[in-house]
Amino acid sequence: MIKVGIQKYSDRIIQYVDRLYVLMFGHETKLIEYDKNYMLLFETIIDSSIAYIRQFDSNQILLKGNVGCKLKLLFNIDSREATSVSDEFSIRSKIGDKYIIAYHYDKEKVFLLDNLLNVIKPIEVGGTKNNTRSVTHPKKPIEIEWYRRLDPTDFKDFFIRAYDLLTDNLIWKTGIDGRVILKIFIDNYIIFSTRSNESMPSEQTRSLYCIKVETGEIQWFKYNFHVYDLLNESSDTVIVHSHDTTYRIDVHTGSVILSKENTTDVLSSIRPFFVDDEGVLFVGRSNNMADNRFGRLSKETFDIEWMYYYEIEGNKNLFLHDMILLEDGRYLMRNGLQGHERLFIFDPDDPENIPYRGISNGEVTDYTNLN
Questions:
Q1: N or C: which end of the chain has fewer CB within 10 A?
Q2: CB 101 within 8 A of CB 136
Q3: Strand pairing partners for 293?
Q4: Is the distance from CB of 246 to CB of 260 less than 8 angstroms?
Q5: pLDDT tens digits for 96-139?
Q6: Residues 132, 133, 137, CA angle at the centre, nearest 5°?
Q7: How far apart are the first and last CA of the chain?
Q8: Which of 26, 29, 27, 20 is nearest to 8 (CA)?
């Protein structure tokens, strides 16, 4: 890549409908607001102990300190004002518009709060305990929990279940064939992959499930389907990467709408990691494992539209965390190991960049022009 800019450090980019927010470190810690063409709109200096930002809801950003720091702020993007949150709690997530999950420091318990941070009740289900893991539905007060035995001979006894967080009552319990690995919520469904027989690689199986959140009914199931990546594309479709193939699957039926193998003589593998309005973004490796690639698959065909070899100032390490499509077609990207993330702007269609593409006349090239 040749033409890049805005090489600064940041923990995270948050994307709203018409704005972007970046937490920027330096002589002063700042929360900076940009429009969707990365033009500065507003910036404010915040407490230097703030280390993370996270989208809390449709108009608030949660700002948190490092581990051990109890300072938390909620920044309203409409009023551009920040308010402190009680240091009794560590806010974990919001459920729809009505509820909040938070951890009480002194009581060492998780509580359900209302949207005004009033305590409703302690949460007695879910979490990480008794060989279980769990996740909260983003819009419903439902905790989804799955279980696996520690004894490797008990690999057949797996299940997933749901609890009502308002009452702690069990809603449903459904048997599955392995440990839950990847998972996403799409409306009233939880879609997840499983892995079984982990202690016996020769007999190991992997599957893909879609289950109705409110009833536990299995909507569809794919046996022996190895899932590497699982992306929410829309309320009707999910992107799944399995072995060397990218699939678009119907959420409601499990039918494969589109599939495409993307390996070539030059490219050993790709890993889809984000979906935007223009296509499916991916990272990849060359067959000789000597360099990193990133690019975009066509939404219509899953063909590689463009792909670039990554190198900035001699740094070939690609650890992409964000790749946000701006309104003018450029991308705002965040790359780097934790603590050393770098922001840069990249235009895949800039005439000075195109000669460095890994695509020529629709074919993947070996980058001889870069050697």
A1: C
A2: yes
A3: 284, 309
A4: yes
A5: 999 999 989 888 899 999 988 899 999 988 876 667 889 999 99
A6: 135
A7: 13
A8: 26
The distance from CA 290 to its chain's CA centroid, rounded to whole angstroms, is: 27
Give CA–CA dist 338/10, Å, rounded. Answer: 10
Q: Looking at this protein, which amino acid is placed at residue 161? A: R
298-320 pLDDT, tens digit per residue, is: 999 998 888 887 766 666 667 77
Q: Could you give the CA distance from residue 75 to residue 82 in angstroms, rounded to a whole number?
A: 4
Is 190:182 a contact under the CB 8 Å cutoff? Answer: no
Q: Which two tokens stand for residue 174?
A: 């459904």
Query: Residue 37: CB partners within 8 Å, gap ≥ 6?
Result: 326, 327, 328
pLDDT at position 349: 87
pTM, 2 dp: 0.85
Q: Which residues contact 245 (CB under 8 A, 6 or more apart)?
A: 259, 260, 261, 262
Decide if 81 contacts 75 (C-beta within 8 A): yes
